[in-house]
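Fold this sequence, please.
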Amino acid sequence: MLEISHEWLKKNFTNPIIFDIGCADLCDTVSLKNSLPNAQIHAFECLDYFRESNTVLAQRYNINYQHVAISEIDGFVDFYPSDELNGKKWPWSGSVCKPNEILYNNPEWKWGEKITVKSKSLKTICDELNLIPDIIIIDTQGAETKILQSLEFIKPKIIWAEISEFKNYDTKTTYQEFVNLMLSFGYIEIAKDKLEHNALYKLNNIELTEYL
């Protein structure tokens, strides 16, 4: 994921509560914590490949880490881990959504065996922590629509979401349908990154500076 602008975040938020959903190896999360040291950051990842190193990094950088999948389900879900990309180890593209046939049969990719992982809904996480984030950063390879159904119950001020993978996984949705879902919950899209892999959404009634 291309990182959200840290300078823009610092202009608009003082001591934000941030959820980083699908944090992988915590690389972007640590960078965010370094830029916003007073932020309370909660990071979520379910792939065991990252578990040990993430636990160490989270303690070192005062990040609240939970080793769990976030989906629409409280319980257990199937997870489809990526293994290799172009002959190199690549665990960053796994998802609770199955890769579609085009991606699954692409010789550049190798996929691991489906696994079962513990899952919590976003609403359950908020209820357990007794808080609502100001900011959600979500990179879940097309599962964003499943996860953000909880926006019916919680209203973070902004959401930075991956939007480029709906077509590559069995998501049963499209980018436009995702935009419509966000609109139905009171969010409008205000910016995209240069590659249009990610988009920024804000609540209608929130005043923010222009995103640059």
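Helices lie at 6-12, 27-35, 51-61, 101-104, 122-129, 144-147, 175-184. The domain at 6-72+122-203 is CATH 3.40.50.150 (Rossmann fold).
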